[in-house]
Design brief:
The chain is α+β, with helices and mostly antiparallel strands. The chain folds into 2 domains: 36 residues, no CATH class; 68 residues, no CATH class. 15% of the residues lie in helices and 37% in strands. It contains 2 helices and 9 strands, in the order βαββββββββα. The strands form 2 sheets. Strands 4, 5, 6, 7, 8 and 9 form a 6-stranded antiparallel β-sheet that branches. A 3-stranded antiparallel β-sheet has the order 1-3-2, with helices on one face. The two termini are 59 Å apart.
Length: 137
Amino acid sequence: MQFETSKMIYAQESVAQAIAAKLEQVRGKKFAVYKVTTGFQVCPVTVCKAYVPPAKPLPVQKPSFESEEVTGDVMVFTFKLQKESPKFISVYKPDGSLMHLGKSTLIGWDISINEGESTPTVKVKMTNKVAKKRGLI
């Protein structure tokens, strides 16, 4: 429920102007006086920025995955292995982020450790459909 006092409506324009001036001094905001059917209303004025520059789109980067196409529908990707669990293989993408691959979605995988490296690598074989869903192609 709103009362007329909460709307700040006054019968005389001079009273409304004086209250608007006092509110501007006290609150530091701009107030305006508008004529309404029952008198003069004091309203706060919201000042918006004149211009907001448009957002700049990020450059599109293709992932630099080491991949090879075995057949028309099967791809093989090579990743650094983080860990292997009974249902998932956790791998590091080239940008360093972690990705979890469900073993049920893979055709096959081969884990190997190259000489001179402490981190094992994994070759993952999956269909093109799964690769697109995971954002690999």
